[in-house]
Amino acid sequence: MMLQQAFDNMVQDCQQVFRCTLAALAEPLLPLTLPCLPPALPGLKPATSALLYTLIDQDVTLWAPALPAATLASLRFHCALRLADTPEQADFILLPAGSALPPLSSLRAGSPEYPDRSATVLLEVEDFTPQQVEASGPGFASPRRFGATGLPPAFWSQWQANHARFPLGVDVLLISATQLAGLPRSTVVQEG
C-alpha cells in the first residue's frame, strides 16, 4: 500500500493551518481559506486532510466511520493516529461528507473543572452560504448570517441544545474543499 503524501513542509504548513484554525474559532462562522493544502487523503477533502495532519498526534484519539485503508495508513505514519472505538470516547470525531451525525449530546463535553477536555467535531460540508442561521456571541462584532450546504439533518437544533450546556459541550469545525468555519460552543444560533 502506498502512503499518501502529506504537506511539502510538515512543520511550517501545520503551523499555518493551526493558526488559521484558531482564527476560525476566534471569529465563528466566518469561512477562512486554508493557507496551504496537502493532496487530499482518499475519501476526504483537501482541507480535511490538512486539519487531520495538523490536529492529530499520539496524544489524541480520532473516531471516523469507515475510512479507506490508505487514509488510515497515511495518518498512522504521519500523525501516529490512534482510533477510538466509539465517538463518545474520541477527542476528535471526523464526519466525511454524507456521514450520519452522532448525537452531539453523547460526545465528550468536558467537565465543570476541565471544560477544555471536550470533543471537537470535524464536519465536512459541500459549501458555505449566508442563508440558514443568524449567529452571535463571543467573537462577533455584530450578528452574522451563515449557512452550509450538506449539513446533516437537524444539525442546527442539535447545536442549540449543545450551546445550552455552555461552558460544557463540543466545538465544531465545518470544512469545505478549501475552507473552514469554526463553531465554538459559545456561539448562539437562530434558524430562519
Q: Can you describe this structure?
A:
The protein is an alpha/beta fold and 192 residues long. The chain has a single domain, classed as 3-Layer(aba) Sandwich (Rossmann fold), CATH 3.40.50.11310. It is 25% helix and 22% strand. The protein is built from four helices and nine strands; from the N terminus they run H-E-H-E-H-E-E-E-E-H-E-E-E. Strands 1-8-7-4-3-2 form a six-stranded mixed beta sheet. A hairpin with a 7-residue loop joins strand 5 and strand 6. Helix 1 packs across helix 2. It is globular, with a radius of gyration of 16 Å. The protein starts with 9 loop residues before the first helix and ends with a strand. This is Phosphonate C-P lyase system protein PhnH.
What is the class in the CATH system?
Alpha Beta
Strand count, sense and barrel status of the largest sheet are: 6 strands, mixed
The CATH superfamily name is Bacterial phosphonate metabolism protein PhnH
By oligomeric state, this entry counts as single chain
Portion in beta strands: 15-25%
First-last Cα distance: 48 Å
CA-based shape: globular
Helix content: 25-40%
Number of domains: 1
Instruction: Figure out the total of helices.
Output: 4
Protein name: Phosphonate C-P lyase system protein PhnH
Pfam family, one: PhnH
Keywords: Lyase
GO molecular function: lyase activity
